[in-house]
Amino acid sequence: GESVGLHLPTLSVQEGDNSIINCAYSNSASDYFIWYKQESGKGPQFIIDIRSNMDKRQGQRVTVLLNKTVKHLSLQIAATQPGDSAVYFCAANYGQNFVFGPGTRLSVLP
Amino acid sequence: NAGVTQTPKFQVLKTGQSMTLQCAQDMNHNSMYWYRQDPGMGLRLIYYSASEGTTDKGEVPNGYNVSRLNKREFSLRLESAAPSQTSVYFCASRSTGGSYEQYFGPGTRLTVT
To answer: Does the distance separating the beta carbons of B102 and A46 come in below 8 Å?
Structure first.
């Protein structure tokens, strides 16, 4: 079946540094990808998305990179802040629905 | 504008008991979803409803039933709860426009003993 995985279950970064969270997907037919942020005790919240006809998309302090050749995407967070501490999920579509990765827990160190 | 609301927030059931998780959205979205989230795993789709009047199975539908009561409400029912259904349940909704963004509720933490 379809699968989405992340390379690291946890990531710790110093406040002010840049964070990079990676994700791999299995279905080469996936053409839409989303990154979500989930804070403790809350539901996932949309961060940024990217379609397969793009290889980079930027938002406010976040950038998503897509490499379709190796079926890999990454989320870059610039100048990481304490409020960025959360679990980050990538999701890849299969048809109209999505497969979610297991998540990377980002901890921001003071 | 409350977004997606879920009730209850917490629930403890004994094996064999039944219950219904309620979900409502006020964004006039066509599609609604039920997911479960277990430790160390991503969200897994239980059931979804692409539009009012339709429901379809997702990845892990066994032991669950759903009802799309109207455009706003989508409920998830456990007929005979089992310990394997201990999880956090999330409801989500999405408009069927250009974006695939799903809006999630705050979740229901269910424990089956």
So the answer is: yes
**Per the CB < 8 Å rule, is A49 touching B99?**
yes
**B-side interface with A, Cβ within 8 Å?**
4, 31, 33, 35, 40-45, 48, 50, 58-59, 90, 92, 99-107
Min CA distance, A33 vs chain B (Å)? 9
Q: Judge: B107–A45 Cβ closer than 8 Å, yes or no.
A: no
Residue contact A103–B4, C-beta within 8 A: no
pLDDT reported for residue B46: 97
The DSSP 8-state label assigned to residue A91 in this structure reads E
> Which residues on chain A are in Cβ contact (under 8 Å) with B101?
34, 46, 49
Q: What is the pLDDT of residues B84-102, one digit of tens each?
A: 999 999 999 998 777 789 9
HEC string for chain B: CCCEEEECCEEEECCCCCEEEEEEECCCCCEEEEEEECCCCCEEEEEEECCCCCCEECCCCCCEEEEECCCCEEEEEECCCCHHHCEEEEEEEECCCCCCCCEECCCEEEEEC
CB distance from A3 to chain B under 8 Å?
A: no
User: Is B80's pLDDT higher than 90?
Assistant: yes
pLDDT tens per residue, range B5-55? 999 999 999 999 999 999 999 999 999 999 999 987 889 999 999 999 999
A27-82 residue pLDDT tens: 888 889 999 999 999 999 999 999 999 999 999 999 999 999 999 999 999 999 99
